[in-house]
């Protein structure tokens, strides 16, 4: 079922001297701030295949690199039909004047070969065209031919990091709920795919309702809620084998909304008993659990801070659902949301500085972010129903569920930059909801 | 096990009919009957009424709901060969997690009321579907009002 085992070997390529350098003030660098509106123009000609065996990989890899980069909204590709220079050999000197003439500020060139062992070998270089020099060193990546998309994402990750100074996120995956069937008899299955919607595979069948999968900190396991037993219970699934087991629970209770702690061993979740929902933490190895809240209100949707010291969660103890932060071991909680409306599903950013949330206000739903003290609230989206944010590994992008209105309503995945720009639908064959973004793959 | 199985089967087959048959009448568990036979599950569903409705974000029982539940309690105490799973549901306005908890509150309100009228809690279980199983699929209040519900799903006690 799963064939994502791929070892990527990354090695520096030592090649000849770069072309004569030109004077320029400072390196090519795009600063990601509120102010960036004009995307940086770049060119990525097809990577040069050195043999028939390398076939279409050269073109396909360049297309995925372009899709990754342009998909951020920070870069704009100059299409191949506008190119003047033709790159026919990875080792030939770059004709900077030809790239300057079409205003390509960054140029990515690459070469592809398949070695004697059948491995795909990809080399690339990034050039600052107006400075007439290479940025960073050329890299060589080796992997299976099946894993060519991952290699392409790795190339794009390198380019993104060199041009933005930010950590990357393209070589990552998303686990989500694939939805089919009408609204009143929806079939739900757990599915996993690359962050851009490619390589979908299914992890469960549609026999039981499944909800809200959540990756472990290393991406090797997924927590989710299933009605397999007739009642909502939490399961942990091994991504590589798709093997799963139910976490311990008492008869007569429901458990849901699980999330891993950064240690990968503790799970925080909601447990409902006698109609009341509180937060608990469980050691996933021993099954021992501990109650974290004790209130007649609803406490749910817990999420750890990246250092594991605190938990942000949703509670209606004030009368409407709002966001609160408490110590990871339980104890006094501070309310952080004070705007007009109802707040839910808070998720701590991997950088630790922001909390993403769902907000319901005046009949609309929003995805928003606020600082961890509740200040600087910003709403990034608005629609009939947006919910369930998840962070890209670098904390720059948020993916979420958007459901359309009415009898034909359908759920899809969308992503948006934390600046609120670049709202995009993530392509999926079926309806899709409850995304959880993996960490960057090794 | 049988109870859980029936509840799930009922849920996925609940369909779009107005007088929703939450129990699979074709099952082998002896659930058939007519709405005229006071000892039949059909009578429970259609004549007494197997569901109660709730106001937005509320789990308190209305006088109408209590009247329905009085009938349910009486039926359950007469027909002791049946157990009940009480399903709580929410409309689509709300997050998935909150709605699960809200549905549990609603189902529990029903359980507590039935229990206060003499039905043994040992015969009842609650489950919340949150917003996962709407009955009506439009996106306005006419549908939402019917989706904010708790449904008492009865099933024969397994004989072993």
Structure description:
The complex is a heterodimer of chains A (442) and B (160). Chain A has 442 residues and is mainly β. Chain A folds into 2 domains: 3-164, TolB, N-terminal domain (Rossmann fold), CATH 3.40.50; 173-437, Neuraminidase (6 Propeller), CATH 2.120.10. Chain A contains 3 helices and 32 strands. In chain A, strands 1, 2, 3, 4, 5, 6, 7 and 8 form an 8-stranded mixed beta sheet that branches. In chain A, helix 1 (57-71) crosses helix 3. In chain A, 48% of the residues are buried. The model of chain A is unreliable at 1-7 and 9-24 (pLDDT under 50). Chain B has 160 residues and is of the alpha+beta class. Chain B has one domain (37-156): 2-Layer Sandwich (60s Ribosomal Protein L30, Chain: A), CATH 3.30.1330.60. Chain B contains 5 helices and 4 strands; from the N terminus they run ααβαβαβαβ. In chain B, strands 1-4-2-3 form a 4-stranded mixed beta sheet. In chain B, strand 2 (82-89), helix 4 (96-116) and strand 3 (124-130) form a beta-alpha-beta unit. Chain A binds chain B through residues 182-186, 208-209, 211-212, 227, 229-232, 252, 254, 256-257, 270, 272, 274-277, 298, 300-301, 314, 316, 321, 342, 344-345, 358, 360, 384-385, 387-388, 403, 405-407, 409, 434, and chain B through 3-5, 7-8, 12, 14-16, 59, 85, 92-98, 100-102, 104-105, 107-109, 111-112, 125-129, 132-139.
